[in-house]
Amino acid sequence: MSRLSRPSAASAAAAELRRARWAATFAFLTNGALFGALIPHYPEAKSAFGLGAGEFGLLVIALTLGAALTGSMPAPILRRVGSRRVVLYGTLLLAVLVSGAGLAVDAAAAVRGDGGLPWGGFVWVFAGLLFVCGIGDAIVDTAQNAQGIRVQTVLRRPVLTSMHAGWSIGAAAGAGLGALSVGAGLPMSVHLGLNGLACAVILLLVHRRFLPDAPSRPDDGPAPSTETVASDSASPQAVEAADRGGPSTAPDAATDSARTPTRTGAYLALVPIVVIAMAGFSVEEFGNAWTSLFLQTERGLDAAVAGLGASTLLLAQFLGRLTGDRVLAALGRRTTLTVGLSCVVLGLLLVLFTAALPVVLSGLALCGLGCAVVVPTAYALGDEVPGLPAQTGLAIVSWLMRVAGIGLSPLVGLLATTVPLTLALLVFPVLAALGVLCSLVLHRAGHR
Fold it and tell me: Where does the record place Polar residues bias (predicted)?
């Protein structure tokens, strides 16, 4: 009887984990779709509010500013509420907020279309909604990564990178459908409302497949009230035990305590991980903010051809995320990070110091492939740092990475006022090289 029941339990647990993995992937996809849908409508907002380019640039940074000001706020929220509920209710709230931003733009456009000047409050409503969206996105992003890391931990193999590929698919789909809606003359609020409704329905359908959070760590303080596991969802302890084919064993408390660093030591251990995350994230910033401008001004390409640069990088990153988990499983995290960021350095140098378009595009593709696994892996490493309350390392890595994203492009712009753009853009390969050095530090720290 026991021989028959054990394979059956293991099969059921494996099926539950597959469903949990897909549920987490759909969480990433909906998050990407919500914010990707905004991008094609930005020119509408600029026109509706009657803003110049500089003013509009300050307006849209409200989203990033809100995310950057969250600090480590997501961690205690996740510990108290649970990542499953945060992902679900946070996504529902984001869908409402994004749709509200569309209503503000449509209202301003309607007033302007009647021959009047739009009420000045519309632009502040739009900016306020983007700001709150930034805060919500930082919290939801931490929660969905916590879900992905939980699945990855129980499976005991890399899967987080492919979940981030789900975000890329969602962002591309949201932006693509947004562009179609703009071309069809669909009001911004209608498109964003329908897009938000679709994302909400997807999350409502899959959220019961999320895994419960891991048990509280000894240094978490008083344990928060835990979420009950849905009747169709196995507990993580049961899933892990069934996956191993036997009961789980608790670690030796004395040994675990001896290995736990001080709180200061734990924060210091986060430093190289944060630098690695910044290095990976900076590649996206380079692709989105600077590639087209560089290829037009420094290589003399027209706008259409220059647009291939960012597309090449992002497509390569997406393909790298589809295959990144296999690479991580084969090479390990330390080696994958070292090789990946070395490819980023090489790719950026090819872009900046070669003139032949095929070589430049090859360099951008190398950058995309090299950075594909960096941010997801940094998130996982940050979450594993001992000596911190649960999800605190993950939240800090995400927060500081976003802060770096705010300062990076202004720094390059400032440098470009005194040196040629090519030299100013060396900030990106220098940061990637620092990431390589930090990945080597991880070797000595004992990360696998």
Answer: 225-236
pLDDT of residue 335: 94
> For a pLDDT cut of 70, what percent of the chain falls above it?
84
Distances (CA, A) of 386 to 132, 236, 262, 332, 444: 31, 20, 9, 20, 16
317 and 394 co-located in one domain: yes
Same domain, 173 and 264: no
Total number of domains constituting the chain: 2
Q: Is 144 found in the same domain as 262?
A: no
- Identify whether residues 160 and 15 lie together within a single domain: yes
Residue 341 sits in a domain whose CATH number is: 1.20.1250.20
In a domain, 252, yes or no: no
Q: Which residues constitute the domain of residue 348?
A: 257-445
| Amino acid symbol at 91 | T
> Which of 113, 75, 127 has its CA nearest to residue 385?
75
| Distance from C-alpha of 286 to C-alpha of 425, rounded to nearest angstrom | 8
Residues 389-412: pLDDT tens digits?
Answer: 888 999 999 999 888 878 888 889
Q: Divide the 448 residues of the chain into consecutive groups of 10 and give the mean pLDDT of each group.
A: 58 84 94 89 85 76 86 88 93 96 90 64 90 94 93 90 91 87 90 95 93 66 37 43 37 42 84 95 87 87 79 90 93 94 97 93 95 94 90 91 84 90 95 95 62
156 with 14, same domain: the answer is yes
At 269-318, the pLDDT tens digits run 999 999 999 999 999 889 877 888 889 888 888 877 787 888 889 889 99
Q: Do residue 286 and residue 180 come from a single domain?
A: no
| 206 plus 340 within the same structural domain | no
144 located within any domain: yes
Q: Is residue 50 part of a domain?
A: yes
Cβ neighbours around 46 below 10 Å, total = 18
